[in-house]
Write the structure tokens for this entry.
Amino acid sequence: MIMHRYRPTVLFIVSILAACTAVSAAERRVPEIPPPGERIRVIIDSDAACEIDDLYAIALAVLAQERFEIEGFVAAHFGDAGGPEGVEKSLAAIQAVLDRAGMAGRFPVKRGSHPLRYSAVPEPSEGVDFILQRASDKVDERPLWIISLGACTNVACAYLKRPEIADRVVVFWHGRTQWPDKAWNFNAYNDLKAVRILFSSNLPLILFDTGTELYCPMDESEREIKPLGRLGEYLHEFRYRNTYFQSSKKGFFDLGDIAAIIDPSLAQSEVVPAPSVNWDMLYNHRQTHGRMLRIHQIDRDGTFALLYTRLREHNAVESPSGSE
């Protein structure tokens, strides 16, 4: 009898939530990558201690400050692989790249949140607060781009705390999923709750859904990266820390995210409905939430050519003689 007494109220609440979701879906903006020459405000959210590709992505980003107005970095967890110290490890890895680039202390580096325990309760962190603070900048009318290279926990937490940031941000998330079937990826299963929030929200979303074939054989790295100053040597020598990093079929996945934003001509994309993500990680294309931009291809040679060019330019400034 008690259940029957409250059933109309429950149904009313459910109907209101459904209506709100429909409005959000209709209002979801489809973001566009600005043309070259236009500067973008960014925060880079990275699980940098997890994989070598984050280090290369961060290096390219800091060497492209004519494109990126970097407001800071947020260190992300990387699930069970990083354990409770994952955020601290990522923070140290970000700082190491900045140091090798001669930019130690130039940008704020904040600690992000641990994975969501509950679907509607944000996990606190200084990184989430930093995202919200920078997104609330009333002086600069440009949107804040959050480039999320790992689990999208910090984006989801920021949205849960203040959903209105959807009007002030663009989220660029490295999913590299098994489209159109499932949202399976290391970044996704490290916080599936966050992924479900991201797709069902009204946050303007660019899904970077490619990058597997961004290979760089060791002989090419030896020739094109190692000679280019402290940063180039660091990026090359880091590959010897793990046999997998030395493989000719090792993808430098996250490097593609940064390259696609610097030079949109390197990427191929499509506007698609934003599906729901089920608990089994399958995409639900029957229940969609507006539209999103999905990048499905990135030019391998152009991406690495961009990296090599920026490293050479940086080395020329840091070491005018051409050697350390």
Remarks:
- The longest strand covers residues 283-298.
- Residues 2-27 form the longest helix (26 residues).
